[in-house]
Amino acid sequence: MANRKRRITIPVVLCLALLMNLAMNFKPPTAEERLRAIGSTKGLSETLKKALEPGVDFEPIPIPKRGDWLAEHPETGQTFNDFTRSRPNRPDKIRSKIYLQPLGEFPKGKIPLVKTLKEYAAAYFNMHVDVLPYLALSERNITTRVNPYTLNRQILTSDVLAILQKNVPADAFCVLAITMEDLYPEPSWNFVFGQASLRERVGVYSFARYDPAFYGQKRGKDYEKILLWRSCKVLAHETGHMFGLTHCIYFDCVLNGSNHLAESDARPVHLCPVCLRKLQHSIGFDVVSRYGNLFRFYKKVGFDDEAQWIANRLKRILPDEAAKEM
Ligand SMILES: [Zn+2]
Ligand SMILES: [Zn+2]
Taking the model in full, what pTM does it have? Predict the structure, then answer.
């Protein structure tokens, strides 16, 4: 999202030429480069070492197809060592909570989306998560427009970020506004999925384009589950950015960049070993109990394939203990 914003200042023709040229050069990292990105695990606990072994549960990132994120945005990646050198924001005793700020209306279905996302964020990041009172669009000075192509209402991200910045609770690590409204970052832009200010520790993300109704398509009978699945992924991805993780180019990973819906649907919800190590370093959670909490969440909401993936991970990390965790 931040990349999109920066590109505005570069002349469009130059930017496209640059991207096309670099796209030709993107090569998926080798096995050795992937190991180097994880970094030396000397001195870590045996359990953590095992959790960071690439093994068979993680697929190397494939060669991007035309139109995919890495074909158009040839990123160079952020190794674990790059990450620590960047001195990212880390939670501490005071700034210890993730706050979710629901913005505008949420669909009233069987799934209480915001409450479920709160539970998910707590399991995923192993941190305390609180939901702030709903913010109605009419309550504050939030600029809206009707998008000329989709004819849907959109809200201006900078207005939302300005409101969030003024109201960051003292114990917040970050405040993330989540909305079913479509977003735009400035008048010349068609739309944006989300935008964040890492320095101010605030962000806003939209799930609007993950609902088939947005595109005028019929909602299938399992649409709530699909919407929850997509929302969980975007929440994990975007919140990951708040911890200073940039896009992952090493494995199939929730932190992979995504250029279109099919690509984000194909992206897994789990962290690869490189990104798991970064998040574990930042938060300091116990990898086994985090996987246990995620397993219970996935079972509860019916994400059975993902629950099975976690069960496999736990068997490999702690063959004798896995059953007790579940
Ligand atoms: Zn991203
Ligand atoms: Zn990753």
Answer: 0.88
